[in-house]
Amino acid sequence: LVADHRALIEVAKGQRQDLKSVLELVPEWNKDELRGLLKSVLLLDAEECRMVPSPVSGTLLIGLGEGEDVPIFLRYDGMLKYRTFTEEEVMSQMEGIWLARSLSQLEALHDGIACASLAVFLAQEYFP
After folding, report:
1. How far apart are CA 28 and CA 53, in angstroms?
2. Cβ(63)–Cβ(82) below 8 Å
């Protein structure tokens, strides 16, 4: 049993080394997609994280795509210009969302229907 365990550990180490060498061959424009895929399957160490950088740079955000696994209100395929918001802008947006959701929930309660989750509300009512 101990020998089998050691053999499995060695195989896993070898596969990680193979992965590191393959990551160096990936073109820059595909590294963000690969990072998301790999992070969903395994933990990356510090060296692997440098080889597969975050999809967020100082000036651009890379869209998560338009797949079913991405919430409707976050679906975008392509690059977005990164913009920093002031605290006042963020608070204003959050107050608007909270007010609209509260009104939506009150209306749902009045009509005797179930209240939508925040994700459904954002996708179907706030950002249609």
Report:
1. 9
2. no
- The mean-pLDDT minimum among 6-20, 52-66, 114-128 falls in 52-66
Burial of 70 from C-beta contacts in 10 A (0-12 / 13-18 / 19+): middle
According to the model, what pLDDT value does residue 28 have?
65
CA–CA separation, 46 and 54 (whole Å): 12
pLDDT of residue 92: 93
Cα 107 → chain centroid? 32
Cβ-based neighbours of 64, under 8 Å, separated by 6 or more? 36, 70, 74, 75, 76
Output the pTM of the full model: 0.44
pLDDT of residue 77: 83
- DSSP at 80: E
Q: Nearest Cα to 34, choosing from 45, 25, 43, 23?
A: 23
